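Task card 7
Instruction: Convert sequence to structure tokens.
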Amino acid sequence: MSCTLNLVRIIKVVRTQDLQQVFAVRTAVFVKEQNCPTDLEWEFEDESVHFLALVNDEPAGAARWRKTDQGFKLERFAVLKGFRGIGVGEALVKAVLADLPQEAKVVYLHAQLHAVGFYEKLNFVKEGPEFEEAGIMHYKMRLQTDATLS
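Output:
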């Protein structure tokens, strides 16, 4: 009997080659799997702080945050199919939250409907009605103010 230990590691992207891996993950999940329009996928890249999830040193997921006029928005959370259900998404959310500046009092995201329960477990609450974005239904979710960011 063999056992494979899945070591999840999140890195803040500073190297071009890591950013290319982030884009490859997002292309696989959003463009190919979910059929999001390519022109909607690639926006605000230069003003965003990107993260790459590695499992046993293999690219597995990606995410980013950026400051907007509404607060600090967490975006583009993507986990490749073969790495779902092993904690990659949760590790990404925690790493992104831990990286936010101290002035990040309003933290929000747009959650696809299937991911609402996942984000609720991480102290996000739905705010407002469902809405369509890139052909997919979402809820705006906000980090509860009594939740810690680390």
